[in-house]
Amino acid sequence: MSTTKRFPPLPKTISAPGGTVTVRRVKAIKLASGHEAWGTWEPHTRTVEIDLTAPMAHQWRTLYHELAHVALDDAGLHNGMNEELVEAVCDALATARFRERFG
Ligand SMILES: [Zn+2]
Question: How many whole angstroms from 90 Cα to the centroid of ligand 1?
């Protein structure tokens, strides 16, 4: 199976409990802190950005990570967790969803 077939293009929008999420593929994401990131989730505009220069497998994994942030935010659960735990939970969910879909 070709890489292209194995990892299809990312969806442009995703339905989530708090409303539709827009997915944008962008180059060189810079956080407010000045650090670089593979992906971001912006709750106010309900937009996920994914670095398009990453390999497709990594883009999908990052998408699932950011969508885990969306799910936690939409459920209000992020308020009861510290940042480290939030990131660990998002990584765990991203890995599970990635393996479920792509093996
Ligand atoms: Zn994160």
Answer: 6
Q: What CATH number was assigned to the domain covering residues 3-102?
A: 1.10.10.2910
Q: How far is the CA of 32 from the centre of ligand 1 (A)?
A: 14
Q: Where do the structural domains in the chain lie, given as residue ranges?
A: 3-102
The DSSP line for the chain is --HHHHSPPPPSEE--TTS-EEEEEESSEE-TTS-EESEEEETTTTEEEEETTS-HHHHHHHHHHHHHHHHHHHHTGGGGS-HHHHHHHHHHHHHHHHHHHH-
pLDDT in tens, 22-43: 999 999 888 888 888 899 999 9
Q: How many angstroms does the Cα of residue 76 sit away from the middle of ligand 1?
A: 16
Spacing, Cα 4 to ligand 1 middle (Å)? 26
